[in-house]
């Protein structure tokens, strides 16, 4: 195995969703509030429609003759959110049928029928401690392609490079600032004084939270 080859970035940017009715799918994904990037056709034999979820670096594409997969066969498509309840309420307000929030007791993975998490029956409601990676809600598109909302607030170590910390939307940034505000309040209680350097503390907390490093105390 060669060890002197430089790393080549490989960025996942597109996922193909198999659908039976292109216009119906286009209306559904537009209703989610996703950005319409393209709607191309070549005669009557080929059409491709591309949408991008808010804050996402990866898009979805569907259409006519873009995949041989059976319509509705896509499962376990994860949408990462910073606030599971807010994300679910947003979709409900858009007329999307979203299941109740649920969580697991240990490591989580929604199986094909979305009723088990690594062999454990899923538990109704969000994780009691709102621990990262542990709370979910599910919905499907008109063909039955399955989507999962997953609440992630703190990344696993090494998942995010602290030097390139970013937030996908103003809402994500605001949520991170609120969590930092609560944590900073506890920090001031511990030191018994107001912290004049709170902007630096906020920044350190938010970067550490995203990158999975130890949070400042």
Number of domains: 3
> Oligomerization state of this entry?
single chain
- State the helix count: 4
Identify the strand order in the major beta sheet: 5-11-10-6-9
Q: Major beta sheet, specifics? A: 5 strands, mixed
What integer is the average pLDDT? 84
User: How many beta-strand segments?
Assistant: 11
**How does the overall form come out from the CA principal axes?**
elongated
Q: Identify low-pLDDT runs.
A: 107-113
Fraction in helix: 25-40%
Give the N-terminus to C-terminus distance in angstroms. Answer: 44 Å
Percent strand: 15-25%
Please trace the helix and strand order, writing H or E for each element: EHEEEEHEEEEEEHH
CA gyration radius, whole angstroms: 20 Å
Helices and strands: which structural class?
alpha+beta
Can you describe what's shown?
The protein is an alpha+beta fold and 217 residues long. The chain folds into 3 domains: 10-71, 2,3-Dihydroxybiphenyl 1,2-Dioxygenase, domain 1 (Roll); 75-153, no CATH class; 162-211. It is 26% helix and 23% strand. A 5-stranded mixed beta sheet has the order 5-11-10-6-9, covered by helices on one side. Strands 1-4-3-2 form a 4-stranded mixed beta sheet, with helices on one face. A hairpin with a 2-residue loop joins strand 7 (116-117) and strand 8. Helix 3 crosses helix 4 (198-211).
């Amino acid at each position: 195995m060669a060890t002197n080859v430089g790393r080549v970035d490989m960025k996942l940017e597109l996922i193909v969703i198999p659908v039976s009715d292109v216009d119906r799918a286009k209306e559904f994904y537009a209703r989610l509030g996703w950005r319409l990037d393209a709607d191309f056709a070549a005669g009557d034999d080929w059409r491709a429609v591309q949408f991008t979820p808010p804050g996402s670096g990866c898009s979805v594409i569907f259409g006519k003759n873009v995949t041989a997969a059976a319509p509705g066969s896509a499962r376990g498509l994860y949408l990462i959110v910073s606030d599971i309840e807010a994300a679910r309420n947003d979709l409900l307000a858009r007329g999307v049928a979203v299941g109740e929030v649920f969580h697991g007791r240990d490591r989580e993975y929604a199986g094909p029928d979305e009723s088990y998490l690594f062999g454990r029956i899923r538990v109704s409601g969000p994780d009691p401690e709102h621990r990262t990676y542990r709370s979910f809600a599910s919905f499907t598109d008109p063909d039955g392609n399955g989507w999962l909302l997953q609440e992630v607030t703190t990344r696993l170590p090494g998942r995010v490079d602290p030097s390139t910390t970013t937030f996908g939307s103003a809402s994500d940034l605001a949520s991170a600032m609120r969590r930092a505000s609560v944590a900073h309040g506890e920090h001031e209680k511990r030191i018994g004084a107001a912290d004049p350097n709170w902007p630096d503390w906020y920044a350190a907390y938010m970067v550490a939270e995203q990158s999975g490093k130890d949070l400042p105390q």
